[in-house]
What we know:
The chain is an alpha+beta fold. It has helices at 11-26, 32-46, 82-90, 142-156, and strands spanning 52-59, 62-70, 76-78, 94-96, 114-122, 125-134.
Amino acid sequence: MFQTELYKGSLEEKYEIVTKQLDALLVGEHDLIANLANASALLSQFLDQVNWVGFYLLKEGELVLGPFQGLPACVRIPVGKGVCGTAVVKDETMIVPDVHKFPGHIACDAASRSEIVIPIRRNGNIIAILDIDSPILDRFSMDEKGYLEKFTQVLEKHI
């Protein structure tokens, strides 16, 4: 779901455009923070019904807040805790339809109701996670999971 009416077509076509925009935006830049900042801004601008889009960087066994769009957030999340820390341990994308039913959910923004978290890798190792929150229950579909994973694969080639 996209905020702007400039994007017509199917969900797949919309994600294809945004992914191509990301690739073009990051060409020639390899700074991790700069690229994560632009990626979060791009997704935040185009995704509908989201209240937080950002990254946590994996540093010394914990996730540390990185570039994001949204309200102030938790600064540190232990690996294995909350949705973000669990995604690192499981080494997989996680969709949570209702964060209030997720054991150990860390509520950084009380308005968040659903979430998707995607690991970001460099040389096969998780270095960060993309975290997207929504105030809508069950906001993220399996189709969007696949499209967002493709988006992160483009991001990974630039970091």
